[in-house]
Amino acid sequence: MIDGYDTAALLTGIAISFGGAAAIWAWAWWAPIDGRVRRWAAARAVPLTEATRPYVTTRMRAARRWRSAGVGLAWTAPLLWELVHRSAYADLDAWVVPSLALALYLSGAVAAEVVAARRLPPGRAAMDAREVAAYVPSALLRWPPRLAVASVVVAGWAWSIGAVDDSRAHPAALHVVVAAAVLAGVGASRWIPGYIVSRRQPVVAPEMTRADDALRSWSAHSCLGAILAAQMALLGQQAFGLAYQVGTPLRWALLAVAVTSIALAIGTFQVASGPDWRWTVRRDLPSGAGG
């Protein structure tokens, strides 16, 4: 026995958790990516030439590695949470661990786009001001503040319950922390995509400009999709946690909200960042460069 755990079960859990993370990272570094690159280019009408193919491949491989880092951390997070907080927060594990794991995965997705934007060849400033709204649908920009308002409302509800019942004070405080994270997503949804789309354009041939702008659009969609998905997932986890602080009539409604929010979170990120979905770059490009 190790600190109340069955030794064999603990070691098995550690092996599965960290072994799985290692396998994920190995796949991200060495698995072929040519098929994904071809699907991505075909969906966006980007020609894969001797110049554009390595450029797109390097960019997509870097994105996959960073996303896999988030997946690996998400895979190990439940075990680490159990080892560190088992005694103090056992009653919260059911809704804290999933949101923690998903947040780590989505953080890796956002980091992938930010790091990739920093590792581009020397470029020139654009003649026109690039706005995020020219690269992504307006709905992706409108929803982060709305989800933040909903999260604050849920946190206030949980806090009011905690004020009446001291035994529920800690869950209420956790709701406030989650609401603060959702609010932070509003700022991230403005700054990070803005940073990506406003970076300098590499001084290259027209087909490279086309590929670069398609990558810029894909990055903006991936970032906003990840941020929206994180907000939805956190809101869903809030609803799940609140469901066990209220009476039966409201419990089922909150559980339905939780399940729907998490399902929408997964679907939103997959649609926004997948290689097979074509998101048109709506900004007008110079002749011969645009998509």
Automatic annotation (TrEMBL):
Keywords: Membrane, Transmembrane, Transmembrane helix. The chain crosses the membrane at residues 12-30, 69-89, 95-117, 147-164, 176-197, 218-240, 252-273. The keyword Transmembrane applies. It comes from the Bacteria. This is Uncharacterized protein. It comes from Actinomarinicola tropica.
